[in-house]
Amino acid sequence: MTRRASPRDIPPTLGGGPGRIDRRRAVRVAMAGAVLVPVAALLGACAATPPEATAPPSATADPAASTPPAGAGEVDGEATVTTIVARPEAVELRDAAGAVVEEYAYLDDPAEVVSAFTELVGTTPIAEDHEGSSHFPPNTSYRWEGLVLWEQRHVDRWEPVEYSITNPRFLIEFTSPSAVGVELTTEQGIQAGDPWSDVLEEPGLVTNPTGCSGPYVDFVELTGVNVDGGAYSIPIVVDFRPTADEALVARVGAPVPSTEECA
């Protein structure tokens, strides 16, 4: 019988072996030749969410953030991107008609995504390194206005662990509905800053009773066999987290393994 997996069921390497998710579409990678940069926070084997991090006290937002520079929104000379959409397996860049202009899977090179976001938003992100632990690898956060990309670096004790959808190369987080005029949203249109009641009323909403991950609508199912030979099933989701008073959506995050036990 297939059951929902707990964090200890997840094999340390899922990419390329049992439990691998077949990508539903080919991912086109642009911006080749971008310089690799460090980044991130773990949502891997321990199913942890990215740690809260704040920019250094001296760091300030780009004074021109409210006015997108000329050329902002264009990605590698293609159609103008107006929206970044968080999905369970990839982050999509869409135009005003909703067509996907570019798509980056969470196993793609984070440097290319950082470069694409920087070109799209038109401002340089604030980068901050974070130490790892037994629960999440060393990482770096890249922060734009309302948009965060976390790059996970499998070094030191994490070096033997393969990247996979449960141990992705990068994660994304939305903390506002837009970044310098670029909309930040989900397949259902739910955004940071929306009333939390809208999330709770969303058709098809799934809630994790343990609270180890937030409620979600958009997900894919990861199935496989654990080290003991038992079948497991793990939803990989785009989850939502509320503000402390549960009045608004505080953040949108992906990809998140939704497990029944916390790390």
Question: What do these coordinates show?
Answer:
The chain is mostly beta strands. It has one domain (3-52, 79-257). It has 2 helices and 13 strands, in the order ββββαββββββαβββ. The protein has helices spanning 110-121, 196-200, and strands at residues 3-4, 83-86, 90-94, 100-105, 126-130, 139-144, 147-152, 170-174, 178-179, 182-186, 216-225, 231-242, 249-257. The strands form 2 sheets. Strands 1, 5, 6, 7, 8, 11, 12 and 13 form an 8-stranded mixed beta sheet that branches. The longest helix has 12 residues, at 110-121. The protein is globular, with a radius of gyration of 18 Å.
Write a brief structural summary:
This protein has helices at residues 110-121, 196-200, and strands at residues 3-4, 83-86, 90-94, 100-105, 126-130, 139-144, 147-152, 170-174, 178-179, 182-186, 216-225, 231-242, 249-257. The model is unreliable at 1-70 (pLDDT under 50). The chain has 263 residues and is mainly beta.
